Amino acid sequence: MGTPDLACENQPHVKNKQGDIRGTTKSSKQTLPTSAAWATRSAACVAASGAFPAYKKLPQIKAAVSALWNTRGLNWPSSVEQHRHKTGDLDMLDWLKAMFGFQRDNVRNQREHLILLLANSHIRSTYKRVEEREKVAPEIIAAARDVQAKTEIYTPYNILPLDAAGASVPIMQFEEIKAAVSALWNTRGLNWPSSVEQHRHKTGDLDMLDWLKAMFGFQRDNVRNQREHLILLLANSHIRLHPKPEPFNLLDDRAVDSVMKNLFKNYKTWCKFLGRKHSLRLPQGQQEIQQRKLLYMGLYLLIWGEAANVRFMPECLCYIFHNMAYELHGLLAGNVSIVTGENIKPSYGGDDEAFLLKVITPLYRVIEKEAKKSRHGKAPHSAWCNYDDLNEYFWSSECFSLGWPMRDDGEFFKSTSDLTQGRKGAPRQSGKTCKSNFVETRSFWHTFHSFDRMWTFFLLGLQVMFIMAWEGILLSDIFQKDVLYNLSSIFITASILRLLQSMICSLKLLLFM
Predict the structure, then answer these.
(1) Residues 78-89: tens digit of each pLDDT
(2) For the stretch 35-44, what's the b/e string if a residue is b when 16 or more beta carbons lie within 10 angstroms of its beta carbon?
(3) How large is the average pLDDT for residues 215-224?
(4) Which candidate in 29, 288, 489, 504 could, as Cys together with 283 as Cys, close a disulfide (CB 3.0–4.6 Å)?
């Protein structure tokens, strides 16, 4: 949609009889008087340029002129004040002329110029708003306003609409879904922070994951995602139980144990490898056991959902969960701190995004620094640490020296220095130690080491072809007793090759240690 364009062209300056330069106006486009007062004052100028009454009616012109006439608060010189009271036809540019001594014709030119610039800008902004309104269909605008008016009822979701408006959705009618949802709503015995307690009493729509969010500072959208994730995991396990539980609309302990076993399999293996007792401690009361298990699972999923690139370091997640689960047990058991004498609270607090900013971000910075050292894959592998190298730190008991909350001066957070090759190719460091227990050093022998099975197959195949060519054996006679006896020598060759490979690997370890 086009917009009308108002322009004012200025003729080049010419010299008058006195020799000074004065601007003269000869506009190729017609200008107009924008008010009666202005028309009276500059009748000669308007008559010379030709008045165009249609322009006078444009609201944009009127708005620009009225803006320039706002001289409230301006102190006029006494020589001009008398004329202003008599005629009342002086605007901002006249005040500037009186104060700074600009030429009269220049003031007239720039007055028209400024009015037309303001009017053009006003017209274009008006048409732009009209175009934007015309691009969106009315029904879409109406639907958006309807959703905005019901934000307290509707909440974003992926698969399960867990808000009040989604209760009638077919997927929410499944008994296994209802069982999982009702199990998460069991918040009996959980001590809520005072800042959340008021909201909980008003709405009454907070569950276990909301409690974990309030205590450990997880993000709101992460809680929404992992709530659906956990409900679907429990519902899938609940519906596969045999024999079927009675009643079916109550979450069975077998379903909880099945999900928990799969979820914490790697964590328990990690604890066993490091000789540590896991933090999955259960209460004595039978009624509280299911709630405690669901809290542990919810905590792990919330950690995983907010871990970003730290997800590629599963043992690092185990370390984080190990400490946070211990704090969770202390919160629920009412443990008291020896130092302060108060109940134990989470080390990083429950502020908004506290977990992301105080736990994940420092770990991510370490990954980011190491990734920059790779120079987009151009640097040798011994000069930087990838995810496996960093994760290897958490496979040793030294990782517990980081403490909880993690110390900023811990070994893991020390930036790895540039590695240099010694005389024997061993990686050396100046000052700080490397985070990885194993540093991969590659040379041209790496090609033979990576494809050792292929080279072995080629050599054994070559030996078979030599034997068949030397003895003149046909392919049809290959399964005869004497032929098989001669060909069986390839097993001796394979054993010798395997022995040589083991000796080379041992020698390589001795050289690079």
Answers:
(1) 888 878 877 777
(2) bebbbebbee
(3) 95
(4) 288
Distance CA 404, CA 11 (A): 78
Alpha helices (runs of H) in 217-336, residue ranges in sequence order = 220-239, 253-263, 265-274, 286-305, 314-333
Cα gap 357→364, rounded to integer Å: 10
Distance, CA of 245 to CA of 257 (rounded, Å): 14
Task: Encode 117-178 in three state secondary structure.
Answer: HHHHHHHHHHHHHHHHHHHCCHHHHHHHHHHHHCCCCCCCCCCCCCCHHHHHCHHHHCHHHH
Q: Which amino acid is at 38?
A: W
The whole-angstrom separation of Cα 277 and Cα 268 is 9
For residue 203, give both structure tokens. 């709405």
Tell me the pLDDT tens digit for each residue of 112-137: 889 888 888 877 777 666 656 566 67
pLDDT at 415 over 60: no
Q: What is the pLDDT of residue 309?
A: 92
Q: Position 52: which residue type?
A: F
What is the residue extent of each domain of the chain?
A: 14-135, 174-359, 446-512
Neighbours of 394 (CB within 10 A): 24
The rounded distance, in Å, linking the Cα atoms of 124 and 129 is: 9
- From 366, 376, 372, 512, select the one nearest 438 (Cα to Cα): 512
Return the H-helix or E-strand segment holding 21. strand 21-22
Residue-wise burial string across 206-244, b where 16 or more C-beta atoms lie within 10 A, e elsewhere: bbbbbbbbbbbbbbeebbbbbbebbbbbbbebbeeeeee
Place of tokens 């060909």: 487
Give me the half-sphere count of Cα atoms (radius 13 Å) on the Cβ side of residue 306: 29
DSSP 417: P
| pTM attached to this predicted model | 0.60
Judged on CB neighbours under 10 Å (0-12, 13-18, 19+), 375 is: exposed
For helices 314-333 and 208-216, the axis angle rounded to 10 degrees is 100
